[in-house]
Amino acid sequence: MGNIMIVIDLEMSGIDPERHSILSIGAVDFSNPGNQFYMECRLRANAGYMREALAVNGFKLRHIKDKSKPSLKSMLLEFIKWSEAIDEKTIGGHNVQFDIMFLKHSFKLYHIKYSVGSRCVDTHALTYAHCARRGFPIPLKYGRSNITSEFVARYCGLPEEPSPHNGLNGAQIEAEELSRLMHGKGLLPEYKKFKVPEYLKK
């Protein structure tokens, strides 16, 4: 396909990387979409949680405090092992700087040498640019772009993510959206029944 990246979606216990914890990582190898990663971990030591965040990702307290689940450090190391065979590790996703911020903090916390970088491919930016090129109204809130994940899905002719959802659901639909926005065609068989809008093919 020519565009190589790792599309990721993380689920967290809250919105502050210093106070909250990654709970799961979902990832899709964009150039080889059958190559996917999903893993959950327990809440890291001394981290808190927000009930609103758990309502979105569907984790219950018993899930995030389950000591039989691997630690965050173990999950990060497994993710690195999975990603080693992928030549280019540019990160893609929706509002993906948020996920990158959590990854960077977590790697630093455990002294893990893995460069995430700050360059990324974001469905928000691509959708914004596509809307602007077509003259399609960009949704605003408080005077700023309000291109949500739900808006991106609809724009790409896809259903919204299930609620609650997990990291792999998110990574899969974001990989599909990126393919439709960049190439005007689908990527994953799960979404084949949803037609690519004509305006994305031009």
CA-based shape = globular
How many helices in DSSP terms?
8
CATH architecture tag: 2-Layer Sandwich
Tell me the series of helices and strands, N- to C-terminal. EEEHHHEHEHEEHHH
- Helical percentage: 25-40%
Detail the poorly predicted runs: none
Quote the beta fraction. Answer: 5-15%
Q: What would CATH call the class?
A: Alpha Beta
Distance between the termini: 18 Å
As for the number of domains, it is 1
Radius of gyration: 17 Å
Largest sheet: 5 strands, mixed
**How are the strands ordered across the major sheet?**
3-2-1-4-5
Topology overview:
Layout: E1 6-12, E2 22-29, E3 36-40, H1 51-57, H2 61-64, H3 72-83, E4 91-93, H4 96-109, E5 120-122, H5 123-134, E6 140-141, E7 144-145, H6 149-155, H7 167-183, H8 198-201
Parallel strand pairs: 1-4, 4-5
Antiparallel strand pairs: 1-2, 2-3, 6-7
Helix pairs in contact: 5-7
